[in-house]
Write a structure and sequence with these properties.
The protein is α/β, with parallel strands linked by helices. It has helices spanning 30-42, 60-75, 87-95; strands spanning 14-21, 24-25, 45-51, 57-58, 79-83, 103-105, 114-120. It has a single domain (14-120), classed as Transcription Regulator spoIIAA (2-Layer Sandwich). The longest helix has 16 residues, at 60-75.
């Protein structure tokens, strides 16, 4: 991860926060991605966008992490969007039966009020 966000005292809300994944999202690479996503959830964005364009693969641990983040955000009235997953990643998510649970958009969608905290290897 190229930037580390410090814990914030008190409730803070940002409209949109983006995280860019740049490698695989699997058990071996999970720790830094999980730390980045945990920090993002603590910032209480209205929408967390995980850009998957650079993510070349995902396994069950990666899928479970995305589902966990999705549930955490739903509890606070926020949402998770997976942006630009490759056809291969979409197929894996469909086979995992989470394609209809996780919101996905095919490419960069213009979003106002962006806040980017850095990128995390996936």
């Amino acid at each position: 991860m190229s930037a580390v966000a410090q814990p914030v005292a008190g409730p803070v809300s940002v409209p949109v926060l983006e995280i860019y994944l740049t490698d695989r999202l699997d058990r071996a690479s999970l720790a830094p991605v999980q730390a980045a996503l945990d920090t993002a959830v603590r910032l209480r964005p209205d929408r967390l966008v995980v850009d998957m364009a650079g993510c070349v693969g995902i396994d069950a641990a990666g899928v479970a992490l995305l589902l966990d983040v999705h549930r955490q955000l739903l509890r606070v009235g926020a949402g998770l969007t997976l942006r630009a997953p490759s056809p291969r990643l979409r197929r894996i998510l469909r086979i995992s039966r989470v394609e209809q649970v996780l919101h996905m958009v095919p490419e960069e969608v213009p979003l106002s009020g962006r806040t980017t905290i850095g990128s995390a290897p996936c």
